[in-house]
Design goal:
The structure holds 2 protein chains of 2 kinds. Chain A is mainly α. Chain A has 14 helices and no strands. The longest helix of chain B is centred in the C-terminal third of the chain and has 24 residues. Classes of the chains: A mainly alpha, B alpha/beta.
C-alpha cells in the first residue's frame, strides 16, 4: 500500500473516533429538539456543568466555597474526603435530574405554546446562567478529571497495523472507550424509546404534542425526562472531553462542533447524529490531511460547516431528518 | 441657618486644605470569564495584589494611592475596546490588555489619546521600535525575542548546530500565534533547520490532525505558541503520541501550571520560556502575606499566589509602579497624568539593586528603556516542568535573543507601519 494511503487510513480512523465524540454532544441537542422542538443552546454548557460537578464531587469540594469564604471570612474549601468516581458519577446524575426538574419548573413551564424562537432565547439565557453558576459553585480554575479511563496510544492497534502496513497506527485508547460508550448509549436510548412506556410517551410527544396530550401523556413529565436524559448525555460528553483537556470553561465551546453534525444528520434523528458525527469527523480530518498543508492548515472548523452546508443544499432536512411538508 | 453655617465651614476647610491628590488609576482589562479565564484570573490577581501591597505597606506610590479598575474583556477584542473606551476617562495611566488582538486595536487609540500601553511579552512585536510607536511598550521581551531564545537554547543543546534538524511550530491560529513565524523562518535560513507550521483553530480543543502529522514527520523539536485549552490539549496529545517532552518547548504563555497539571505525570520534562522567576522564594511574598493576604485584601479567591501567571501579573504591576515613580521624579509631581506616565515608561531603568529593594532579587532582568527601544533587553530563560514535585524549575539563566536577526525584522515591520499610517519618526 502506498505510504500516503496508509497515512490517510490512519487519519480516517482517527476522524471516525473524533466523529463519535462530536456525536456525543450532538445527541443531547437531538433528544431535546425531538421531544420539545427546542434548540437547546445550553447543551455545551450542560456538558461543562456536569463535568464541573463531577470533579467537584470527586475532589470533595464544598460547592460555593469561594462565595461562602468571601461573605463570611471563612476558609472552607473541601469536605476533607474524596469520592470514588462511580459514586461521584451517580451523584452528578442526581444533580442533572434535579437541574432538569428546575429548568422545567422555573423556565419551560412558563413558556408553553410560545414561539420556538422564544424557547431558543430562553436556552441562551440558561446557558449563561449555568456558566456563571458553575463558576460560583466550583471555581474557574482548570480541573483534572480522572475517572479511570485509559489514555494514550493503543499498543494492540499499533502492533497489528505495523505488521500489516509497516507503520503502526495511532489510535487513542480514550477514543476507543468513547466509541464503545457511545454505542452503548445509542442502543440503550433506542431500546428505551422503543420498548418502555416512558419511551413510547416520548415518541408520541415528539410526533404530535396535541395528540399525546389528548391521550393523557404529561408534557411536563416528558420534558423533565428528556432534559434528564440530555443531562446524562452531557455528562458522558463532559467526561470524554474533560479527560482530554481538563475541565475548564472552554469545554462549553464543544457545542460549536455539534452544529455541523446536526445540520448534516438532521435535528430529529439519533442515527443522524451518529452518522453526521462520523461524516464530519472523517471529512474534516481527511480534508486537513490532503488540502490543509496547501492552504496553511487549520481548516477543520470551517470545513465542517462547509460540508454541512453542501449537504443542506441537496437535503435541507439533513440526512435523517423528517421532511417537513406544509400544505396551504 | 445652622446647616448653612456648617456647609460654609466645610467648604472653607476643604479650600484651606488644598486640592486632594487623585488616585493613580491603573485599569486592568482582565478576563475572569470565558474560555481563557484560567489564564486571565491569576494575572489579574497578581496585578491587583501588587498595587494593594503598595497602598497598604507604603501608602501608595510617592504618597498617592493606586487604584485598579477592572474591566472584564472575556479575551474578546470588541469587549476589550469597549473597556478601554469606558475607563480611559477615569484618569487611566497605562493599559495592560493581556491580549494581542486587543493590543492591535488599541495601538492607534492610545497614541491618539496620549495614554501609554504596556504589552509585556505579547502584542505587536515591532512596537519595540519607539521611533514609530510612541505609546506602546513591550519590555522586557517580545515574541520574536522568545522565538530566538528558544532557537538559541536548541543551538546550545545541539553543539551550536541545527542544520538538518526538523522543527515544528504548533500555533494558535490568531494574530498572537502567527507572531513568531517570520522570525523562525528567518532563523531557519541562518541555522539551516527545516520548519513545519501547524495551525490550531480557536479554542484548540481538537488537535488530532496536527499531532498525527507530528507523529508521521517526527520533527526533532516542537515549539508551541498556544493559549488556554490549546496548551493543555497539546501537552496531552504530545504525551499520547509519546513525543519526548524535553523536546517540546512552549512560549511563556504556554508555560503555566494550568498547562501541564491536567496531563499529570505525562507532562514531566515539558519546557517553556520564562520571562521572570518562578516559585515563592522571594522576599516580596512575605510582604504580600502580611499586608494583603492576612488582612483579607487579596484579589479574587486569593488562591493564585505563587503561580506563574500570578507572578507575571505582579511583575507587570511592579513595572507599571516603577514607571509611575520614575514619572513622578521626572516631572516633580506625585499627581501624574497619562502623558507623564508615558515619559516615565520611556525613562524606566530597572537594576538588580532596585529589584532586590523591591523584594524580587534575580526575578527579572536589569534593563533600561530608551526613546528608540521600547522592547527592553529581549532576554528570557527556559524552565522545565517537574511533574512529581508539581513545579517549574529554571534550567538556564537569561538568554539573549539574536539581535542581528530580530532588529532588522523590527525595523522592517515598524517602518512599513509608519509609512502606512504617515507617522513621523521620533527620537531623531
Amino acid at each position: 500500500m502506498p505510504e500516503q494511503l496508509i497515512f490517510a487510513t490512519e487519519v480516517a480512523l482517527n476522524g471516525l473516533m473524533t466523529g463519535v465524540l462530536y456525536s456525543l454532544v450532538a445527541l443531547g441537542f437531538v433528544l431535546i429538539f425531538k421531544a420539545s422542538g427546542i434548540f437547546n443552546y445550553s447543551q455545551g454548557v450542560l456538558a461543562l456543568f456536569a463535568a464541573l460537578t463531577l470533579v467537584g464531587f470527586q475532589d470533595g469540594q464544598v460547592p460555593f466555597s469561594h462565595l461562602i469564604n468571601a461573605t463570611f471570612g471563612t476558609e472552607i474549601h473541601g469536605f476533607g474526603f474524596e469520592l470514588p468516581a462511580i459514586i461521584a458519577i451517580v451523584l452528578t446524575l442526581g444533580v442533572m435530574v434535579l437541574l432538569a426538574i428546575l429548568i422545567e419548573k422555573l423556565v419551560l413551564k412558563h413558556l408553553v405554546n410560545q414561539e420556538p424562537i422564544i424557547l431558543f432565547m430562553a436556552t441562551i439565557g440558561l446557558a449563561y446562567f449555568l456558566e456563571g453558576l458553575g463558576d460560583i459553585m466550583w471555581g474557574s480554575d482548570i480541573k483534572n478529571l480522572d475517572v479511570g479511563l485509559p489514555q494514550g496510544i493503543s499498543p494492540v492497534i499499533d502492533t497489528v497495523t505495523y505488521e500489516w502496513f509497516g507503520y503502526g497506527f495511532f489510535i487513542d485508547k480514550l477514543d476507543i472507550v468513547a466509541t464503545v460508550i457511545a454505542a452503548i448509549l445509542v442502543i440503550s436510548l433506542t431500546l428505551f424509546s422503543q420498548y418502555s412506556k416512558q419511551g413510547r410517551a416520548l415518541r408520541a410527544v415528539a410526533d404530535d404534542h396535541q395528540a399525546a396530550l389528548s391521550v393523557g401523556v404529561s408534557l411536563r413529565f416528558i420534558w423533565v425526562l428528556v432534559w434528564s436524559i440530555a443531562g446524562l448525555v452531557a455528562l458522558v460528553a463532559g467526561i470524554m472531553w474533560g479527560t482530554k483537556s481538563g475541565v475548564q470553561f472552554s469545554l462549553s465551546l464543544i457545542a460549536l462542533k455539534a452544529l455541523p453534525v446536526l445540520m448534516l444528520g438532521g435535528f430529529t434523528s439519533i442515527p443522524g447524529a451518529i452518522v453526521g458525527g462520523l461524516i464530519i469527523g472523517v471529512g474534516e480530518k481527511l480534508f486537513e490531511f490532503t488540502v490543509g498543508p496547501m492552504v496553511g492548515g487549520a481548516t477543520e472548523n470551517w470545513f465542517a460547516y462547509v460540508l454541512a452546508l453542501v449537504f443542506l443544499v441537496f437535503r435541507p432536512q439533513g440526512l435523517f431528518g423528517e421532511k417537513i411538508i406544509e400544505r396551504v | 441657618m445652622k446647616l448653612t453655617r456648617l456647609a460654609a465651614a466645610a467648604v472653607a476647610a476643604s479650600l484651606a486644605a488644598g486640592p486632594a491628590l487623585a488616585d493613580l488609576v491603573f485599569p486592568s482589562l482582565s478576563y475572569r470569564t470565558g474560555a481563557y479565564a484560567a489564564g486571565g484570573i491569576p494575572f489579574a490577581d497578581g496585578y491587583a495584589d501588587y498595587f494593594t501591597l503598595l497602598n497598604e505597606r507604603d501608602g501608595g506610590i510617592g504618597g498617592v494611592k493606586a487604584k485598579v479598575i477592572e474591566c472584564e474583556t472575556a479575551y474578546n477584542t470588541e469587549k476589550g475596546v469597549e473597556c478601554y473606551e469606558a475607563t480611559k476617562g477615569e484618569g487611566a495611566l497605562v493599559y495592560q490588555p493581556l491580549s494581542t488582538g486587543i493590543t492591535y486595536q488599541l495601538i492607534p487609540k492610545v497614541t491618539e489619546d496620549d495614554i501609554p500601553m504596556h504589552t509585556m511579552g505579547y502584542g505587536r512585536t515591532s512596537a519595540a521600535n519607539g521611533k514609530v510607536f510612541s505609546h506602546v511598550f513591550n519590555y522586557p521581551g517580545t515574541y520574536w525575542d522568545g522565538a530566538s531564545i528558544i532557537v538559541k537554547h536548541l543551538l546550545e543543546i545541539n553543539g551550536g548546530d541545527l542544520s538538518g534538524k526538523k522543527l515544528a511550530l504548533v500555533y494558535h491560529n490568531s494574530a498572537y500565534g502567527k507572531e513568531p513565524i517570520r522570525t523562525l523562518e528567518e532563523l531557519s535560513k541562518k541555522h539551516g533547520y527545516e520548519l513545519t507550521l501547524l495551525a490550531v483553530d480557536h479554542p484548540g480543543q481538537e488537535q488530532k490532525s496536527q499531532w498525527l502529522q507530528i507523529r508521521r514527520e517526527r520533527p526533532d523539536y516542537v515549539l508551541m505558541w498556544g493559549w488556554g485549552v490549546m496548551n493543555q490539549v497539546a501537552v496531552q496529545e504530545a504525551a499520547n503520541i509519546r513525543f519526548p517532552m524535553e523536546n517540546f518547548i512552549g512560549v511563556w504563555w504556554s508555560g503555566s501550571e494550568n498547562d501541564v497539571l491536567p496531563a499529570g505525570d505525562a507532562a514531566n520534562g515539558y519546557k517553556a520560556l520564562a520571562m521572570h522567576g518562578t516559585g515563592m522564594d522571594y522576599p516580596i511574598y512575605e510582604d504580600l502575606k502580611a499586608h494583603v493576604y492576612d488582612k483579607g485584601r487579596a484579589a479574587g479567591a486569593g488562591d493564585q499566589i505563587g503561580t506563574v501567571l500570578y507572578s507575571r501579573g505582579m511583575y507587570a504591576a511592579m513595572l507599571a509602579a516603577e514607571a509611575a515613580r520614575t514619572a513622578q521624579d521626572l516631572h516633580g509631581t506625585a499627581d501624574i497624568t497619562a502623558a507623564m506616565m508615558r515619559d516615565g515608561m520611556e525613562a524606566l531603568e530597572i537594576t538588580e539593586e532596585r529589584m532586590t529593594e523591591l523584594g524580587l532579587p534575580g526575578f527579572g532582568p536589569s534593563f533600561k528603556v530608551t526613546c528608540e527601544n521600547h522592547g527592553g533587553p529581549g532576554v528570557g530563560m527556559i524552565q522545565q516542568w517537574d511533574a512529581s514535585a508539581k513545579e517549574w524549575n529554571l534550567i538556564t539563566g537569561f538568554i539573549e535573543s539574536d539581535d542581528s536577526v530580530i532588529e532588522p525584522l523590527v525595523q522592517e515591520d515598524s517602518m512599513a507601519y509608519a509609512k502606512e499610517n504617515n507617522i513621523e519618526l521620533r527620537c531623531e
